[in-house]
Design brief:
Layout lengths: L12 E5 L5 E3 L18 H8 L4 H8 L10 H11 L1 H6 L2 E3 L1 H10 L21 H4 L18 E4 L11 E7 H9 L7 E5 L3 E7 L9 E2 L7 E6 L4 H11 L3 H9 L9 E3 L17 E3 L7 H27 L5 E4 L2 E4 L5 H4 L2
Parallel strand pairs: 1-5, 6-12
Antiparallel strand pairs: 2-3, 4-5, 6-7, 7-9, 8-9, 10-11, 12-13
Length: 346
């Protein structure tokens, strides 16, 4: 990135990352364990225990909606490490998202932002002490918070050929993807299709809706979002199961007459996140017959993912308190009426 560039040509470096992946590091910034990625459900039991200690009234007051603590929540992960890897937990100084781990490596400084810390902070962006107290030692292992747009520091000389590039704290992937897709104001939203499916909508209000993440307001924006657990990952899984390339599987699906479709697929391969938040739900095919072929199953996988995205959209739109005539797909506006894949396939 720095090849052929001068320091004056770089205004700043900004980072974003998934936030439900966690890196446990010691005081020197060394990772003590492999990162626990967002799809990892090992902390489901710890999440249930923590969630059972919170009332709907507390969740409503803290987050504006009855958001559950699930297996990807940082407190559930901390409780799991404390129970199953006590030596590493004792050495842990910080529990960081991938973005914040990279910030530490680049600048030598530790920080996160309030938006990335959703589920740990209140609607003012302050850590929730009563919540953190549920896991002894959690509070002192969380990074200090500062605004996403603030410069954290300069790159260490050994990380940037001595240039000293300013590094901005940055924020989570859903917000960064939202900006990158073209969303620029209230009444706009985006649909991201990747390993999982993510719907993000911007409004001027918050309507408490179960299963939806309604972030703390920034300026006059209320951003509502939800991630599924398995979107494009379902396609990857099926292609590997049948021993074909993804492009071949897609071609098989395109050759099927959808009007004759009778096969259903539930894409809950590792449980489901928004809007159901059920780590124990599992995927399945329903309606397999003697003449069912790979193309039929491939099409069912695509439609199952599309239907889960539509279910998610309906919940997020309810939280936003309005309808959306179109959504951005990447950097391309896609009409919900005639072009959005996840609506049309439902």
């Amino acid at each position: 990135m720095l090849e052929g560039r001068s320091q004056l040509s770089i205004a700043a470096l900004g980072l974003c990352s998934q936030v439900n992946t966690h890196v446990f590091v010691d005081a020197a910034g060394r990772a003590l364990l492999p990162a626990i990625v967002w799809q990892d459900g090992r902390a489901a039991q710890e999440a249930e225990t923590l969630d059972s200690q919170l009332s709907p009234e507390q969740k409503q007051a803290w987050w504006g909606a009855p958001v559950p603590i699930d297996a990807s929540h940082p407190l559930a992960r901390m409780a799991w490490v404390a129970a199953h890897a006590p030596a590493e937990w004792e050495q842990t100084r910080w529990v960081l998202s991938p973005k914040d781990y990279c910030l530490l490596q680049l600048t030598g400084k530790v920080a996160s932002d309030p938006v990335s810390s959703f589920g740990l902070v209140d609607q003012c962006g302050v850590y929730l002490e009563p919540l953190l107290a549920l896991v002894p030692g959690a509070a002192r292992r969380l990074p200090p918070l500062q605004p996403m747009e603030r410069v954290l520091g300069l790159t260490l000389p050994e990380r940037s050929r001595g240039l000293g590039v300013p590094v901005v704290t940055g924020t989570m992937d859903a917000w960064s993807n939202m900006f990158g897709s073209g969303v620029a104001g209230i009444g706009e939203g985006a649909y991201f299709s990747g390993t999982s499916e993510i719907i993000t909508l911007v409004s001027d209000r918050r309507v408490a809706t179960a299963g939806v993440l309604s972030f703390l307001p920034v300026a006059d924006w209320y951003v509502h979002a939800g991630p599924t657990q398995s979107g494009g990952d379902s396609l990857r899984w099926f292609a590997e199961c049948v021993g074909q390339a993804v492009d071949t599987v897609l071609a098989e699906a395109a050759a099927v007459d959808r009007s004759q479709g009778r096969l259903l697929f539930l894409p809950h391969l590792q449980g489901e996140r928004a809007p159901l938040w059920d780590p124990y739900s599992r995927g399945s095919f329903l309606g397999i017959e003697a003449d069912t072929g790979i193309g039929d199953m491939a099409l069912a996988v695509l439609e199952g993912v599309a239907c889960s995205a539509r279910l998610l959209y309906d919940s997020v739109a309810e939280a936003a308190g309005r309808s959306y005539p179109f959504l951005y797909l990447g950097a391309v506006a896609v009409s919900r009426g005639c072009g959005a894949r996840f609506v049309r396939m439902c």
